[in-house]
Each structure stands twice: as structure tokens, then as C-alpha cells.
Design goal:
By secondary structure, the protein is an all-alpha fold. The chain has helices at 3-24, 33-52, 61-77, 84-103. Helix 1 (3-24) packs antiparallel against helix 2 (33-52) and helix 2 (33-52) crosses helix 4 (84-103). It starts with a helix and ends in a 6-residue tail after the last helix.
Length: 109
């Protein structure tokens, strides 16, 4: 399978898994469901757009991890100082994506 397709599928699967976790396993009183779902969707969307712009020849784990790091920095930079909970939440999500990327078996790596 093409490296880019494999990476995008893995990231999409992780996002879907995270949605399910938020909706079904997080205690209702602790949820900020809409905001967190929106954050996961926005981060995943921006990351996949960034990956899609990269030439297939340059897709490897290092490139994907760099994209993830840049996207996380950009996302956090746009948050307000009062959004510490969102910063922590999205950083945890990015860490889960990092693990998914490191576990990918890409051609040429």
C-alpha cells in the first residue's frame, strides 16, 4: 500500500477511536464533548491536509512526525492562555498519533 494512504488511514482510524472513547467512555459530567470532538476533528483535518500536500516520494516516519509536531505547535499557538485544558487534551491526542505513526510499517523506512 502507498505510504501516504497507509499513514492517512492510520491517523483516521486513531481519530475515530478517539471519538468513540470521548462519546462512550468519558463520564458525562467530565465531558466537554463538543469542544473536544471539534479539537480532534480540526487537528486531524489539518494534519491530513498537510500530509496530502507532501510528495509521495518524501513520505516516511520522520516527515510524518515533523508534520504532527508542526500541526500541534500551530494548534496550541492559536489557543488562548485560558485554554490550558484544551492544550493538555490535544497534546495527549497528538501523543497517541505519534505512537500510531511510529508503529507504521512504511516502505523505505
Amino acid at each position: 500500500m502507498d505510504n501516504k494512504v497507509e499513514a492517512l488511514l492510520a491517523i483516521s482510524d486513531k481519530a475515530n477511536e478517539h471519538f468513540k472513547y470521548l462519546l462512550f467512555y468519558t463520564p458525562q459530567e467530565e465531558k466537554l464533548i463538543f469542544q473536544r470532538l471539534r479539537d480532534v476533528l480540526e487537528m486531524t483535518s489539518e494534519l491530513t491536509e498537510r500530509i496530502e500536500r507532501i510528495s509521495d516520494d518524501f513520505i516516511n516516519k520522520k516527515t510524518l512526525l515533523t508534520c504532527l509536531s508542526n500541526e500541534l505547535q500551530s494548534f496550541i499557538y492559536d489557543l488562548d492562555a485560558n485554554d490550558l485544558d484544551r492544550m493538555i487534551f490535544i497534546t495527549r491526542y497528538a501523543d497517541q498519533l505519534r505512537v500510531v505513526i511510529k508503529d507504521l510499517e512504511l516502505e523505505g523506512d
